[in-house]
Amino acid sequence: MKATPNTQIETSVVAIVDDDAAVREGLALLLRTVGLQTRCYPDANAFLADAGDSVLGCALFDIRMPGMSGLDLLDQVSGRYDLPIVVMSGHGNIDSCRRAFKGGALDFLRKPVDDDELIGVVQQAIRTRRRQSDSHDAQQVRAERIATLSMREREVFNGIVNGLSNKEIARHLGGLSPRTVETYRANVFDKLQTRSVVELVRTYAMGQDAAAAR
């Protein structure tokens, strides 16, 4: 049974890179049945011109193509662009499969590709890309908000996330009054758009954000 459309991913574009026009058209038609948009490219060089386009959610590379092969194209794209790549081949072997995964491919599919398997792999790839993009955007927003803190506000912020009271922060900062610390504390919550210590710690003091703030 075919997978059903998913409105969360149907706005992403799937790049299909294959020198066989019939294969390109067949894959594009299949993906359109689940609401996915596609762009078709006859060779690696044609795709490279669009490789950095942010609307791309996933790419399908055929291995055997004239000129640059799909595996060579994978080497060009992987690590340079944050794009999930699925490699396809009708002549795949263990060595090419191993090279594809070593080169950063998300999956390796043998032609003729099973329709349901391809749809599932592509949809999962786009979901992964969306999560990564959303996470990156959220991290950027947090970093921008933290950057608005003054040096003193940053010091108070560090005290809050380390569990210090206003009095303890005041002593740590060289004898500020607790009331002054409270003013800085209010500024911190306002600039970082948080309403509680729990929210502040959860949003800004976990993992890499905590390291960046310190």
- CATH H-level superfamily of the largest domain: Response regulator
Shape: elongated
How big a fraction of the residues is strand?
5-15%
Q: How far apart are the first and last residues' alpha carbons, in Å? A: 52 Å
The class by helix and strand makeup works out as alpha/beta
Task: Please provide a written account of the structure.
With 214 residues, the protein is an alpha/beta fold. It folds into two domains: 13-138, 3-Layer(aba) Sandwich (Rossmann fold); 148-209, Winged helix-like DNA-binding domain superfamily/Winged helix DNA-binding domain (Arc Repressor Mutant, subunit A, Orthogonal Bundle), CATH 1.10.10.10. It contains ten helices and five strands. The protein has a five-stranded parallel beta sheet with strand order 2-1-3-4-5, with helices on both faces. α6 packs across α8 and α7 crosses α8. The longest helix has 33 residues, at 115-147. It is elongated and about 75 Å long. It starts with 12 loop residues before the first strand and ends with a helix. The modification 4-aspartylphosphate is found at residue 62. InterPro entries: CheY-like_superfamily, Sig_transdc_resp-reg_C-effctor, Sig_transdc_resp-reg_receiver, Tscrpt_reg_LuxR_C, WH-like_DNA-bd_sf.
